[in-house]
């Protein structure tokens, strides 16, 4: 409990119906890759009801069905490591269910064929044949299932679901997880506004692509723009702020922006930058050069991640997620999202090369955003000089004509409560 209370990271279960559906579709997608045999077995047993109705109750496998000794151990890990633990445990349940129901003479195969797979998995969890230690060992022995990968699948699923569900008018699949979620009028309004703005942005992007431009037109102004009234930027005027705000993820526009760091007030030092910025997530970087070019990046992950180590104990070179994007506001207005956003549904791993997933990198000497065949934004340790080039991550042109730039002002914003 002390770990949960003291943590500055987000460790909570989603509380809107839309994001609840995103979570179970994320479980379904990662199961197809990291628990392939179990997912295929589940598909065969599901019959006419389809797998969707089964995965929709995935949180209840853990929170309602597992015996108390199992649940205590799972929550202990959850408090320490976050939501990825639930995803791992859900896959472990599928793997164990597959193991105990493969034989057609088994109790669980008979239960699944008689009463349906959804009831069988629920009963299996309530009578879990594996010990708490065996359950967790199975969960944490799943290889290559990183938080970064889960985050990428989650974001991609969310973006796809927001656009497709609204365009087709399909209703969200209901589960016990969503039955009791808040349905106040204010929440409905926010959710509808979120959907509407996403569709408008998507249509604007498609229109601009037809016209040969990378930049989507500004979304219709909404209650989500009010927080920017308090911004006193030395780089952007309100017209440019409105444009930039319309490109942010909708949920972020509901939070109050806070100026974390500016060279005008805090000096030109990467050390100071890290002290003031590194624990905030997300952050918005805005650069004005000595030639008056204005560009920057929305960075989805805290800069402290530069200190994290991989499974081999080495510091990871790049971090971040596909929600990161670049932008240019002068002399050209354009948004450059991650190239993986245009990959086919659920196929990002096959269609997006490793060189296109280099979102953010940093150390004591520099900061980099975007990589692969070049760096979209690079700044030195004195936050004075930088360079920009085309990169594979965002498929952007150089953000200023010369490629090299001298920084006049750098501003970094966080979002209170995000």
TrEMBL record:
The record's annotation in PROSITE patterns points to: TLDC
Q: Tell me the keywords, alphabetical order.
A: Cytoplasmic vesicle, Membrane, Synapse
Q: Report the InterPro entries cross-referenced here.
A: Rab-GAP-TBC_dom, Rab-GAP_TBC_sf, TLDc_dom
- Give the main localization category: membrane
What subcellular locations does the record give? Cytoplasmic vesicle membrane; Endomembrane system; Synapse
Q: Does the keyword Nucleotide-binding apply?
A: no
Q: Which SMART domains does the record match to this protein?
A: TLDc
Bilayer topology reads: Peripheral membrane protein
Q: Which cellular components does GO assign to this protein?
A: cytoplasmic vesicle membrane; endomembrane system; synapse
| Superkingdom in the source lineage | Eukaryota
Which residues does the UniProt record annotate as the domain TLDc? 234-416
Xref: PANTHER family? GTPASE-ACTIVATING PROTEIN SKYWALKER (PTHR23354:SF122), NUCLEOLAR PROTEIN 7/ESTROGEN RECEPTOR COACTIVATOR-RELATED (PTHR23354)
**Protein name, as recorded:** TLDc domain-containing protein
